[in-house]
Here is the input.
Amino acid sequence: MAPKDDPQLVMYVAVKQPKLGVSYVGADPLSEIFNPVMQNSLQYLNIKPSEVKKQKANKIVDYTNQTESSAVKELKELGYDVSTIGSGRKVLDQSPKAGSILLQGEKIILRTEGEMEVPDMKGWSLRDVMKLAKVAKLDLKTKGTGYVSKQSLEAGKKVNEGETFNIELSQPDGAGEDIPTKEKTE
Here is the structure.
């Protein structure tokens, strides 16, 4: 919907089984359609954009074999949200991989050597949880949509590769209240 405060346009975009490259996610083909169409529509209706703070996008470098402390420091200076899984000092893996382009503020997961402990993921997006599951080689099972509201492995619990990890996602308070569900309409 746009504009955000007084919507005058609503757009629905769906891409059936997109063919994605290695560093792409499902939202990429949607944004390639949505952005130019919405921009042209807003220009046609003579709706001026509000002031938007520009976010910088950076190409992520390879942090493997670097020390965890130097990688975290560098990523935080670039404006990223960094989570480390592992008790060691040397970075073994990262998600997203080197070469990915990320906007400031996005989450990057670093896997270090040593025992892995599960972080508190309440409020994380599914995309961020999937990054962690990939790096930690966990068998991720999800239920619901939205953001993490419950996780089967407690924060701080030691976890091993291959373990099953269940998360429950829910919409933030107030989101979707006007959408009728099957229970409400029957």
